[in-house]
Structure formats: C-alpha cells, structure tokens
C-alpha cells in the first residue's frame, strides 16, 4: 500500500516537472507560430489528463494506456 502511494507520488511529481519544463520551454507562447502553439497545448492537455486519471482511477491506469496516449499524441503531431 505504501509502495503504491509512493509510486503514485513519484508519477505526480514527474508530471509536474514535465509541465514546468514544458511551460519554461514555451514561456513566450505568443511569439511562437500557431502550429507549435497547438502542439504545446496538446502536450500540456495530455499530461494533465494523465495526472487527473492517475489521481482518480489509479487501479485502472496501466502502462498500455500511457503508451496509447503517447502514440496518439505523436500520430496527431505527424498528421498535423
């Protein structure tokens, strides 16, 4: 139980760090082109979705869901 909770906290902190790095990378969002701005918002929404899903449904959140979400993200970027 404690190990699962610590793993959950680790995922949350990693996602927070990822969000902070993404925001730092695109701190001048108004200066970047619209296409990159859309990719930025898409990546931010994907990370936030994972955090919310981990918070409320940790038992149903498996690695396959993460891999599928990341695959869809990169497929959308490739097709954009």
Walk me through the structure.
With 80 residues, the chain is an all-alpha fold. It is flat and about 45 Å long. The chain has one domain. The longest helix is centred in the N-terminal third of the chain and has 24 residues, at 2-25. The chain is built from 3 helices and no strands. It has helices spanning 2-25, 34-56, 63-79.
Strand coverage percent: under 5%
Indicate the radius of gyration in whole angstroms. Answer: 14 Å
Low-confidence sequence ranges: none
Number of helices: 3
Overall 3D shape: flat
Order of helices and strands: HHH
The domain count comes to: 1
Q: What separation lies between the terminal Cα atoms?
A: 42 Å
Transmembrane segments: 6-26, 38-56, 62-79
GO molecular function: kinase activity
Organism: Streptococcus pyogenes serotype M28
Protein name: Truncated sensory transduction protein kinase
Summarize the structure.
It is built from three helices and no strands. By secondary structure, it is an all-alpha fold.
List keywords for this structure.
single chain, 80 residues, mainly alpha, 0% strand, flat, transmembrane
Secondary structure topology:
Layout: H1 2-25, H2 34-56, H3 63-79
Helix pairs in contact: 1-2, 2-3
């Amino acid at each position: 139980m404690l190990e699962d909770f610590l793993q959950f906290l680790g995922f949350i902190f990693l996602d927070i760090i990822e969000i902070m790095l993404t925001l730092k990378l695109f701190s001048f969002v108004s200066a970047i082109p619209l296409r990159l701005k859309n990719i930025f918002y898409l990546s931010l929404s994907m990370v936030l979705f994972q955090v919310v899903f981990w918070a409320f449904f940790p038992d149903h959140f498996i690695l396959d869901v993460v891999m599928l979400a990341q695959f869809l993200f990169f497929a959308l970027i490739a097709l954009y």
